[in-house]
Specification:
This protein has 751 residues and is α/β, with parallel strands linked by helices. Helices cover 34% and strands 22% of the residues.
Length: 751
């Protein structure tokens, strides 16, 4: 009879997640034991019984069969949350591939990388404890004893007894500190049976406690309809993920809260994903005002102890709602009911580290495994999500009006080429200068946004707006220090230019301004204005985001200058003007999604204005005022943008028109890396000979060298995702058996 074996990882809380042990699956447990199942196994020379989790099943023994012990039994206490997350890790390892290093690297290593992602606390942290002192005798007896001690001048003892009679319970540190008792003295009093010292477990709580009031806004008719549509979908046995498409300021968060309310009544928990750590403070405050103490958050800036404690609180059911960026997706809720993905279009939901998982796809898979629901919200959904909604794979629910019927901001598009012709070389157009002065006089606030995300040195003409692009891929060429312009999709290369090929102007080059330069010029133009800057440099410490945003919300500043972190999800009622300094920075990134991301950023930025009592305005400064992403964002017209963008994607064969597999390589030796990826390309061409597969590259990555490691990339595009997965699997095996790849790191990413 055929034998089957289980790869088992033991003692997850204590062991490193890079060692597994193989056990034989007894015949009576075949078909019952699956990935994620918790089992009991004999371990070590003494075969002591310990628990472990199954992370893989195969029919091939890895060591001599006689040395493989059988699984004792399945864990009798039921399925634990770790089992569910391990099952999710298994899915992630298959879906997103892994980083290959040496011949020893296998699918097991791949799975371990996924395990480290879903179970991030590598070692069990010590539970924080506090010592307290309480009376062991009756109050009347204590009062009599206090009189006796005062009469005998036992001053320290009397202070302790007096404090206990007043407060009931006293912390040990207060007794040794404020009351100035020695540890030996306290111990003697304890031994006499008068007091009792207790150790109490306490959680490190990252939430800054404030007095909160339960706030529940009345939903408008449109929001009510949206909630009903979603709840009806949830009643279906085959319910779909929900895409909540609502214009900026339409009240998507209130819809989330109503849905979470329903989930909590059923005794379930909810995860709310947000794209930026900067959004955490305001989001948590809103949710705590509504749901109270059951709300907490997780993100990378928490200490290991704080993170561990929030995980434990979630596992024990002490919190019901967790807010955080993509890593919060792996919160160990035992009875998960809902995952909300706010601003689902954000690229930060895609991990850049192995495994290169996308929070959206992973959330949908976790919800499927745990029979939970997924709601994705955005004013500017990704092209992929909106296309799936159009096809019926997602339920599309729309909010077309702002809450309380607030008007959308009035948008002015400024042609920077015309500003240059008029002699204005500052970062502020004449129109923007005038509007800022007007707001300052009215004691209203201004946000200035510089969309530098993904900025990689594109070259454009300041006189006519011409951008240097690849003739083969229709993306911007990137300027490199070697004096060349390079396409990061196909490797097309030309020398850097000194004159514009379109108009002959010498004003051609990269945009040099950063947030610091904008702040300096703002102080120069508006010397009386109170200015705050929010970017990577001003938010290095743990609470910097919160401090800056709180100060701006409290109107302690007139102007807030920042990058993309200031334009998403924040609600500042007194902001009536938003200025986009240079829309072209994101528009001309060497990426096929540049137009989409520009539209998203500009729409989000414009949407920050006019969310309070006063109407809002926005100024978009650009060298390409007629580009469809800029025109449609000014109109806040997503549908019009989508129709134009999907045509471009279809013509060029970019997702979602076709699936794309990205094969990224890095090595300390540039020639070896190029040779390795060239061999990868030749191998792919040898195993798939049909002409419906497009292979582009190898070409340098957008950042071609990091920490002395050269980086290159191959792109594969095909109409059938399954074909790309099969190619990836065969290429993985090819790399594993080929010694030429020992000094090359390969990473797969399915876009």
């Amino acid at each position: 009879m055929k034998k089957w074996y289980a790869d088992i990882i033991v003692d997850i809380s204590q062991e490193k997640l890079d060692r597994t042990f193989q056990y034989e699956i007894p015949q009576n447990l075949l078909g019952i034991i699956k990935t994620g199942t918790k089992v009991e196994v004999p371990f070590g020379k003494g075969s002591r019984t310990i628990s472990g989790y199954v992370i893989g099943i195969s029919d091939k023994p890895k060591i001599e069969e006689s040395k493989i012990k059988p699984v004792s039994k399945i864990w009798e206490k039921g399925i634990e949350i770790e089992s569910k997350l391990i099952g999710l890790a298994g899915w992630m390892s298959r879906e997103y591939g892994c980083t290959m290093k040496t011949l020893a690297v296998s699918s097991q290593k791949q799975l371990n990388q996924a395990l480290k992602t879903v179970l991030p606390v590598k070692e069990k942290k010590q539970q924080k404890e506090t010592r307290t002192i309480c009376l062991k005798i009756e109050p009347e007896e204590a009062k009599a004893l206090l009189e006796e001690w005062e009469r005998k001048h036992y001053k320290a003892k009397a202070r302790l007894l007096e404090a206990l009679l007043l407060k009931g319970v006293l912390s040990y540190t207060e007794a040794t500190g404020n009351l100035k008792l020695s540890s030996a003295g306290i111990k003697k009093i304890e031994e006499s049976g008068i007091i009792q010292i207790e150790n109490q477990k306490v959680y490190r709580d990252p939430v800054h406690r404030k007095e909160t009031k339960t706030v529940q806004k009345q939903l408008n008719e449109e929001q009510d309809r949206a909630v009903l549509e979603i709840l009806e979908e949830w009643e279906s046995p085959f319910h779909r993920p929900v895409l909540l498409y609502g214009v900026t300021g339409s009240g998507k968060t209130e819809v989330y809260m109503k849905l979470i309310e329903t989930i909590l009544r059923e005794g379930k928990q909810a995860i709310v994903l947000i794209p930026e750590i900067a959004l955490t403070y305001q989001t948590v405050e809103r949710f705590r005002a509504r749901f109270g103490e059951c709300v907490s958050f997780l993100h990378s800036r928490l200490s290991a102890g704080e993170r561990y404690d929030q995980m434990e609180r979630a596992k024990n059911g002490e919190i019901s709602i967790i807010v955080g960026p993509r890593s919060a997706l792996f919160t160990p809720f035992p009875n998960l009911g809902l995952i909300v993905i706010d601003e689902e279009q954000e690229s930060s939901y895609k991990s850049e580290k192995t495994p290169c998982y996308h929070a959206r796809e992973t959330a949908i898979e976790r919800a499927r495994q745990e029979k939970a629901n997924v709601v994705m919200g955005s004013a500017t959904p990704t092209i992929e999500s909106y296309e799936r909604a159009r096809k019926g794979e997602y339920l599309l629910v729309t909010l077309k009006s702002r809450y309380q019927n607030q008007v959308m901001p009035d948008v002015t598009i400024v042609n920077l080429a015309e500003e240059l012709k008029a002699g204005n070389r500052s970062v502020f157009s004449q129109s923007l200068q005038e509007k800022i002065k007007e707001r300052l006089e009215k004691k209203q606030q201004v946000m200035l946004f510089l969309n530098r995300r993904g900025y990689t040195g594109f070259v454009s003409c300041r006189a006519c707006g011409h951008v240097m692009k690849c003739p083969h891929c229709d993306v911007s060429l990137t300027s490199h220090r070697n004096g060349k312009l390079i396409c990061h999709y196909c490797g097309y290369t030309i020398p850097n230019v000194k004159e514009c090929p379109s108009c002959g102007s010498p004003y051609i080059g990269g945009f040099k301004a950063g947030t610091q330069q904008i702040e300096e010029q703002a102080h120069l133009f508006f010397p009386k204005a109170r200015i705050l800057r929010m970017d990577a440099d001003t938010t290095r410490r743990k609470d910097d985001h919160e401090k800056i945003l709180s100060a701006f919300l409290a109107q302690e500043a007139d102007i807030l200058i920042g990058t993309q972190m200031i334009v998403k999800g924040h609600d500042f009622p007194n902001v009536t003007l938003v200025g986009v300094i240079a829309a072209d920075l994101s528009l001309n990134v060497g990426d096929y999604r540049a137009s989409e991301r520009t539209f998203q950023l500009l729409t989000q930025a414009v949407g920050r204005a006019g969310r309070g009592r006063f109407a809002g305005e926005a100024v978009i400064q650009t060298y390409q005022p007629e580009h469809y992403s800029i025109v449609t964002s000014a109109r806040q017209n997503y549908e019009q943008f989508f129709e134009q963008e999907i045509v471009y994607r279809s013509l060029m064969g970019y997702p979602p028109a076709k699936s794309m597999l990205t094969i990224s390589g890095s090595s300390a030796e540039e020639a070896l890396l190029l040779e390795g990826l060239t061999y990868c390309r030749k191998y792919i061409e040898s195993i798939y000979k049909k002409n419906d597969l497009l292979i582009v590259g190898p070409a340098p990555q957008s950042i071609s060298k990091i920490q002395d490691m050269y980086r290159m990339v191959l792109h594969l595009r095909h109409g059938n995702k399954e074909i790309l997965i099969k190619i990836m699997e065969r290429l993985e095996r090819y790399i594993q058996i080929n010694k030429g790849f020992e000094k090359i790191y390969i990473q797969f990413d399915m876009n």
